[in-house]
Amino acid sequence: MYGGELPYNRYRKGLYVMVTERLEVRLDAERRRKLCELAASRHASLSQFLRQVIDELYERSDLERRLQAAQALAAMEIEDVPDPATLKRQLVSTHDTCLP
């Protein structure tokens, strides 16, 4: 029938992925044409292409969030932490003389 593989299974990076949910999207003729053209340029079905686009956009969005977090951390004014011996002396002299 399908060469032993169901049509909704595909092989990617050594793993079989089974599509478990269905989504209906309504497009006008022009957007459908564009979508078909883009999918064909990647030699992919519409479903494969849309899954790829979702993954790519998600990865890009995740990268942007991480970059913003890194920039926020870099913008913080954090003083350098001294070496452990110096830090211990500072803590002892400032807070408590009971530390050895």
Task: Give the gist of this structure.
The protein is mainly alpha-helical.
Description:
The chain is built from 3 helices and 2 strands. The protein has 100 residues and is mainly α. The chain has a two-stranded antiparallel ribbon. α1 crosses α2. It starts with 8 loop residues before the first strand and ends in a 6-residue tail after the last helix. 0% of the residues are buried. The model has no long low-confidence stretch (mean pLDDT 82).
Number of strands: 2
Tell me about the largest β-sheet: 2 strands, antiparallel
Number of helices: 3
Provide the gyration radius in Å: 27 Å
Keywords:
single chain; 100 residues; mainly alpha; Arc Repressor Mutant; two-stranded antiparallel ribbon; rod-shaped
Could you outline the blueprint of secondary structure elements for this entry?
Elements: E1 9-12, E2 15-18, H1 29-41, H2 46-75, H3 84-94
Antiparallel strand pairs: 1-2
Helix pairs in contact: 1-2
